[in-house]
Structure prediction request, 136 residues.
Amino acid sequence: METGDLTAAAQIAAQIAAQMAAQMAARMAALRQGKIGWQEWRSHLPQVEPNLREADLRRTQLSGINLSTANLTKAYLTEATLIAALLSHATLTKANLYEANLTDADLSEAILTDANLIGANLTRIDLKGRRYKAQI
Prediction:
């Protein structure tokens, strides 16, 4: 590769990184607005599987929110409130759900490999078809 090609490739990589950061910021802003803001965001992009990888959602109110199919790999959900949240088909690999409230949450078909569920409230959760090796 020529120097000009490397410079162009670096510029493209920087543009992609900036776009990804902007998209993550938009997703986080919608989540912080709560259930209604998130539903509005998802209604505009119904085909998108939300990428919330490594998102910091500690102590966030997410009751009743639809996070089905979301990628929450390594997400920080410590002490988050996820009462009746829809997490079906979500990827929660290595997610930290320490002391999260998951009462009545739908985790059917969710991937919970190496998730930290220590101290989490798992009252009446739906775990049909789930895949996990979690710390409970």
